[in-house]
Amino acid sequence: MTRQIVSIVGGKDVPATSTYISANPARTGEVVASVGLADAGAFAAACRTAKEAQREWAKVPAPVRGRVIASIGRLVEANAEALARLVTEEIGKPYKESLGEVREIVDTCDFFLGEGRRLYGQTVPSEMPDKNLFTFRNPVGVAAVITAGNFPVAVPSWYLVPALLCGNAVVWKPAEYAAASAHAMYKLFAASGLPEGVLNIVFADGKETFEGLDLALSEGSVQKVGFTGSSEVGRKIGELTGRHLQSACLELGGKNPMVVMPDADLALAVEGALFGGFGTAGQRCTSLGTVIVHESVHDEFVERFARAVSNAKIGEPMGDVLAGPLLDEKFAVRYEEFLTWIQPHHEVVTGSTGKISKESPHHEFTGEDGLYYHPVVVDGVRPDDRLFLEETFGPIVGVTTFQTMDEAIELANLPGYGLSSSIYTTDAKNAFRFREGVSAGMVSVNNSTSGAEAHLPFGGNGKSGNGSRQSGMWVLDQFTRWQAMNWDHSGRLQKAQMDVADITPDLDFRLP
What we know:
- One of its GO terms (molecular function) is aldehyde dehydrogenase (NAD+) activity.
- Homotetramer.
- Residues 19-484 form the Aldehyde dehydrogenase domain.
- This protein has 2 domains: 39-252 and 465-485, 3-Layer(aba) Sandwich (Aldehyde Dehydrogenase, Chain A, domain 1), CATH 3.40.605; 256-453, Aldehyde Dehydrogenase, Chain A, domain 2 (3-Layer(aba) Sandwich).
- By secondary structure, the chain is α/β, with parallel strands linked by helices.
- The protein has helices at 40-59, 62-78, 80-91, 95-115, 154-165, 179-190, 206-219, 231-243, 266-278, 298-311, 329-339, 386-389, 405-413, 428-437, 476-479; strands at residues 3-5, 8-9, 12-13, 18-24, 27-37, 123-125, 131-139, 142-146, 169-173, 199-201, 224-228, 249-251, 256-260, 288-294, 347-348, 376-379, 396-402, 420-424, 442-445, 480-488.
- α1 (40-59) packs across α7, α2 (62-78) runs antiparallel to α4 (95-115) and α9 (266-278) packs across α10.
- The strands form 5 sheets. The protein has a 7-stranded mixed beta sheet, sandwiched between helices.
């Protein structure tokens, strides 16, 4: 039976104004959920509901909020397999990766449950006697969180868990094509005992969401916006929040480079490039974009990489495969446009491109009715090519060469993104020189461009974000505001920088 899903605000279902059909990309004729979409007015109303609920939630002691986060983690852990199966069914992510994604929610909860007892401020010494200075973390208020569907449950948890822990209320707008996964995750969070209205889920298309967010910001019912998605939309979100004197938490796309040095372990580099470039069918913000390989090892690396990619198993995502289908029909359409960027001076070293079918199978796999595409490696990519400069969300990786480390760093930074990066080398000097020169917010040494841990800052610079960070203690600065307090118990007005004791040194003193 098809799931019927609608928005939930204040614990109550919200009537829909239109319907979206979420289909299984492995079998596009199979409906996963019928999703009732709300309009801009409903989104703004959800933010008003959250604003009312947040006042009481903020009064709950932070250690108690931490116990709620602990309960969420245990609930997700107990339902891990069911949630992972739903993720695989709805977006075609290989089941093993889906299990890892669900585990990321648990890890995030495990980290933040203790932060309820560590929302530390500081006691600061005053320059005047009988006066104490303090700092406190206060919740921002209401966070509007808008997320993509390639990581439909893990990435949202990076926002929801710390936001709730810090005493905020949340209005979450997930991607329509991953609505069933998001709805299931909402139910698990709600079962933890969160008061109604503290977490709300709204399904809406991009236009209605943007208009609703604009209205909510104008009404003063949203104090923080978190957005994961494309750089193009991220710019618009940043402009909108900037007009209201807010700074959004933006986690955007990437054109993530992997540098292969002459001394690299090529077998390891190929393994990292294979997973980084084609895991989740290349549909991660941290997916490998371009391999920048030293000219002395170029031929051997390309031969090994092309063989590994050609032999990789593509197929039914519940099986043991490297990649399943693309996430949704709209991503398939976009990916086919990216394939047109292949130029005569390029060399496709992996064979077929385009959709996997009976006429163009990947080994024995024909793709049946799914959105399956051949993995593609393009050699001979140049720095002025679109394939080099722009994000290609899908199973395609470019290869180019370099001669010097300075050139490698310049090429790594040239596209203007700054999310993730990788270098393969056995020389520590190379690793640290690359780290110092690359603009990416994350650097891996002898590891792929993909991968995150719950206690490490995640985020990018340039086209990849505005410098905000998720995960670990660093994300607390996104969902709290510092408040300074001074307490003068001297019984008189002491004026800063004026009523300060002055001890005069003898600066003319010299040793004999």
